[in-house]
Amino acid sequence: LNVMVVRTRRAGGGEGERARVSSLCEVEASILEKHWGAFDLARMMERCALSCCVEDDEDGLVGFASFHHAPLVGDFKPSMWIEDVKRMWNVNAGEDDDIDYSNTLVLNFFHSEHAYEEVALNEVLKMAFNTFPQVEHVLLFVPINIPLFKPLLGNFEPLVLQADVKANYGCYHVKLKEVVGEVVVRLAMVEDHDDLMPIFKAQNEDADAYGEFFLAQMIQSQDDTNKALVVELNGKAVGILGVTGDMSLAALQEAFELETYDYLVQGYEEAAVKLHEDHVAREKMRREEHERQVREMLEEARRAAREEVEEEYSQMMDERADKQAEEDADKTEEELEAEEKEREEMFEQELAHRVAIAEEEALMEIGEFLEHPEPSVDLESLSSNAVCITLFCLDPRLDSQVHKVLEPALDLFPDKEYCILTKRHTVKQSSLIHLFHPVPEKLGCNFSHALYICHRACLLRAMQVSKAGEAEVEEISEFLEGEGSREEVLSFLQGAGKEETVFVARLEGQISGIAVVSPSKQPAVFSKWFELEQFMSPELYGSDEHLELLHLLVNPIFLRRVPEILRELLRITESFCLHAAVQDAQAMPRAYQTLTYIPCRRLAPSSPPKDLDPAKTALEPDLPLPAGPPALLHTNFRLLSQPKKDLDDRIVVIGGCETSVGFADAVLSVPYLDLHRVTYVSPGGLALRPPLYKRRSLTLSDAEYRQHAISRGCRVVEGTVSQLDRVEQVVSVRMDSGETVEIKYDHLVLAAGFRDTVIDRLQLWHVDGVFSPFNLYQENALQAWLEKQ
User: Fold this and answer.
1) Which residue in 460, 477, 611, 731 has its CB near the most CB atoms, within 10 A?
2) pLDDT of 553
3) Using CA atoms, how far apart are residues 227 and 175, in angstroms rounded to an integer?
């Protein structure tokens, strides 16, 4: 039996890849046009959500397929094509298996060498289901006068037209379970050991250290808090998930930023509110008691001071009584009244002086009111609200089914909302990690493992994105409470903007995210001034197919679903590209990390020569640089579907110059990487001024330096390196606040730049007439100073 060996990968976007695909299809181009309609392979590879190349064992291209979230043929509108399909064809799907925008993909093109067509089709369908785990159905549309052809025939089933409906295309359908198989998740049994061990060993480098019967022993030791679930396909165990509800959270609560997730305990919010209310009540009573004591002591001090002054005044008057009588005999009545008035004024002045001193002494004695620090919630007294993954392995062919394993695992612990996963930062990631999002580590904790978290609600399948209405103002206002953009978003919702549209993303009716978009007015400006061609082909998009993202705020537990929200925004608005121009790059929400950072061009582009096509060079004249310029972020259907590799390697960048900024921007802008543990150390952090030392060439402009985007993907530490231990791989950083912290690293990047240390040591930067000859700004200042002399 001759078995065709092929491998499937994502199609590249370069000219070479496009030429290979064109060469594959050109022989049968006329037939393919009859089957799929007029097609442009370059546009398809650039604009569609997923394009696949199939290669043989000698790396020869033998197949190509393209999938998208809407049909590219006929009169279907991307914003409502599912409704059209349901109106025209009998879908014959149950309520739990109905097609919708989130679970349906369209095969818009497929071609393969005939010898490979069956295996190629099977592999591209598997890749589509693995790339979009939420997809359960793939549809295709073929002209009604063209019979379904091989290899589609026999793999896709036709949908029957509704009565009295005429269509120019036939609609065909295949389900996930028909391609990958239908998995069953059940409690593990000892008998599953033999099926699971080969998978376990293949995915765990240190599997032998666990012992030959590790899995059997783990399965046998199940109890109320420790469970093992098996994934079964065609009667054979092909994966296992171990989960426990019995673990200590103290170390994780100490090392990670878990306040957003209520520290993974039940009743935290209620306990925190009660504790705060009790604290406020106690402090109010203490303050009132302190104020009462102050009043009493001041009254006593005033009384004592008055008595003392009155006694001294009385004694003085008695001593002067005899002598004063003789002196007063010769004075007129007016003179006597004036002297009496003067004595009274002196008495009042002395009394006021003595009272002020007494009050001051009394206040010093009782002291100012000092509010007690608010106590923190006793986390140990609260029940855990999380289960922990202890073991996971799954046949890679079923990576698209991983969510079907986690759901029943959480169902075993109905009182828990979170599932957590810890992994050493150097081990390979599993397919399970894509359901979780990382939790930031506290500065200086240097925990040995990375922490990932998943909320039960994040596993719900259908996220509904729709245009917001004025009836939702109150609900949206509550969701945006505490956000700086709240008033602006609400004003757009109430009609303040003519082109701005507010969208809400909901799960089970609850708001999970808010987005504000508008049609992009300057796609050509972005193409001219930013290096968009590194990530897309601007010439393959129409000027009306660009969307601008003004605001995006998402509940932190749904950060992994941001690509789904952005895809829906593009689909509903019938756009293909999305840009976000952010003026304050240091204030970007975490949801923006899904977007790709586009660098500004190093040199201002000139008008293109006459023999060059401006559409290709993107150098159209009369397009000024945007104010700022902003930090530009971008995405499209193709980038949104590109799997990202989660990396937990600890990278420490010792910064302070444009080199470090450029490096960090570059490494954090790779579209297929998610770097979770990058730390940028620099005096003053990401200051909004260029570094002190700056040459005139090969550097970032002042505007570019201010609009770097590295703060959206890394921890910024304001401080300087005081010590480096290369053996233990630890950097000691003296913070600008005076505190010293230790930061562990796996990779250390030194790019601190140059400084004039002589002037630094002498602290002469602010002395008039003292300048550094190696500093661009000091050179300019020296020139200006000389001109004034």
Assistant:
1) 731
2) 93
3) 31
